[in-house]
Amino acid sequence: MAADSRRFTPIKPMQAASLLLAVLLLVPVVSSPQNLPVAAPFRISVNLNLVVLPVTVRDKKGGFASDLRQENFRIYEDGVLQSIRVFQHEDIPVTAGLVIDHSGSMVHKMEDVIAGANAFVQLSNTEDQLFVVNFNEHVTLGLPASVPFTNRADQLEAAILAAPASGQTALYDAIDLALDRLQAGSRDKKVLLVISDGGDNASTQTLPKLLRKAALLNTIIYTIGIFEADDPDENPEVLRRLAKETGGEAFFPPQFSEAVSNCQDIAKDIRHQYAVGYVSGSTRAGGQRSVRVTARAAGKDLVVRTRTGYIAPDSPADASAPRSEAIK
For labelling alongside 313, which of 126, 214, 239, 299 has CA 20 to 30 A away? Predict the structure, then answer.
């Protein structure tokens, strides 16, 4: 199912927007050289506040709406219609981390977790960079130091099996380490798949700080909560928040074995997303801004899932993006 990205090298969204704006600014000047002062070379200073959103669009039956064009989308920032400057719908490689709970409450679930991870890999792009973070009260990278990333199912399975299922749960610390590890990858799109019961009783990191960090690093988090009856560590709300506020999706399979199909659904979701971007027209620096994305096509009832806001940069070096939910 993976696209053959060797056929071409797409321009990155920031490069595309910068190039377009530079061309628009340069054309009238180049066409009228007599207007240029002889002693002063022409210079362009461009400060783009580019916002690129990962957008999933489904029909009412849950199928992907994969044939939409740029004109089918509208983006509003703080209620103001924006001009779309970036539009992409291709299977681009990602850097993705599998964050796997190995606490004592997961001991009877590991077989299904490994099967799910294998299913995820089978539907991944062959150029994806994958890694594993294992955690109980301790947090470790699953792959050996000599293998920072891989797309091989056998290496990822060995990485998950490298840690025993016992002890307490440091979920927030594990996601914190995974976010740091993502930044070592070379793919523009960053994703985490977290499989856990959602409880945390051993972290030094806090959920609010973690959510802000995930937003600032522009990371999509998908979660799968697998619980036993009367599980004291069960905390589905944490898993829902992690997914909702980063543009991902949360799954809660009634049977552990259904984690496999959930992992397949997540892999397909990643492969079918649109990247839709705009240059914010706001001159206000910093602060929270709301974003709403809609998609319309004749004869189709569409549901859009993306972030619903982002943190505007205080300076050109800053970046970011929080919340998300389904928007009809």
Answer: 239
Dihedral of CA atoms 72, 78, 83, 88 in degrees, nearest 10, equals -60
Q: Which amino acid is at 203?
A: S
Neighbour-count burial for 3-36, b at 16+ CB within 10 Å, e otherwise: eeeeeeeeeebeebbbeebeeeeeeeeeeeeeee
Q: Which of 111, 140, 82, 100 is nearest to 276 (CA)?
A: 82
Q: What range does the domain containing 265 cover?
A: 94-271
Residues 246 and 321: their CA atoms lie apart, in Å, by 8
> Domain count of the chain?
2
Q: Token pair for residue 244? A: 């909702």
Average pLDDT, the chain: 82
108 phi and psi angles, rounded to 5 deg: -90, 5
**Contact status, residue 132 vs residue 151, Cβ threshold 8 Å:** no
Residues 40 and 110 both lie in one domain:
no
